[in-house]
Amino acid sequence: MDDESNPPLMDTYKHLFDDDNHPRSLLEAADEDDHDCGLPVINLAVLEQGEDAAAAKQCRAEIVRAASEWGFFQVTNHGVPQALLDRLRDEQVRVFRRPFQRKVGEPLLDFSPESYRWGTPTATSLEQLSWSEAYHIPMMPPSAAEHDDQVATADDEDENHIRELQGDDDEMMMSCTRGTCFLRLNRYPPCGGGGAFGLCAHTDSDFLTILRPLDTVGGLQLLKDGRWLTVKPNLGALVVNIGDLLQAWSNDVYRSVEHRVVAHAARERFSVAFFLCPSYGTVIRPHRRPEGNQIDSVYRSFTFGEYRSQIREDVRLTGRKIGLPRFHRHASSPPVTQEL
Fold first, then answer.
1. What is the pTM of this model?
2. What confidence score (pLDDT) does residue 154 get?
3. How high does pLDDT run on average in the chain?
4. Is residue 270 pLDDT above 70, yes or no?
């Protein structure tokens, strides 16, 4: 592709490649395990049809098992039209093909200028560098405010389905609206012979993430049983992964798993991710069992705003996210509480 559209990643971060602390050994170790890691694949058709109660119950059990054992799973028959996904990829490629200076200097549509991001400004080592560029797209941009009533009506049916699954514990999930969730359009440029992480190892700070690979270029890896496993792209499925908030809400029943992306040496990679986030004031509380008995909570209650503030502070001070351990009931140091 035209170099004019590429962010100046190597020029900006060459000093990190010259450092002795290079993740090449980690990348090579991951390559040795480069195979389909066997993520659970769950067919959602039985939930949509609603005709076979036993099959629907089994499908829900498979989701719970995958969320508990893997923290990642794939779903098929998800209802997103293939034509829409194809159009999304075409538009995403077009957007990233714009000259870099335009991407930095000109807002995309009416989104904030800060919606375009590239690299990792705070990186002090290659382990902290993300060799990528991305657009963070709010689900309800400012110009859509006049359509709020239409959006609320469109969300009603989905909210009813969530209430059926959540029972009396739906308050937190219901705070996830189009005004709090967002999409991230990802592009991972080829990294040549340098070797780099397209996205450094992390867990997601939301309830749930839904990822759609837009090509067959692999690179997504997850940590399971102490080993990095590569997820083979499946264009017929969406990848779902559990976020930190759902792990905290479930008292560690569901797993927010560390994952990363390895940049390809010669081929660019595209993906799009949807992040299910609550409002900053939403309180994350321990889950109650159906009979109403409070189980021992692993974490103290906290707001999403507190969580985001703590992450930002830890990254500023240590260069990395610490996440949920900060919110254990018996954490050694109290989290910061300043607002973002």
1. 0.85
2. 34
3. 82
4. yes
Q: Give the model's confidence band at 195: pLDDT under 50 very low, under 70 low, under 90 confident, else very high.
A: confident
- The identity of residue 146, as a single letter, is E
Has residue 145 got a pLDDT over 50?
no
Neighbours of 260 (CB within 10 A): 21
The structure tokens 């080592």 sit at 125
Pull the structure tokens for residue 171: 């308050």
pLDDT band at 48 (very low <50, low <70, confident <90, very high): confident
Round to whole Å and give the CA distance between 264 and 275: 24
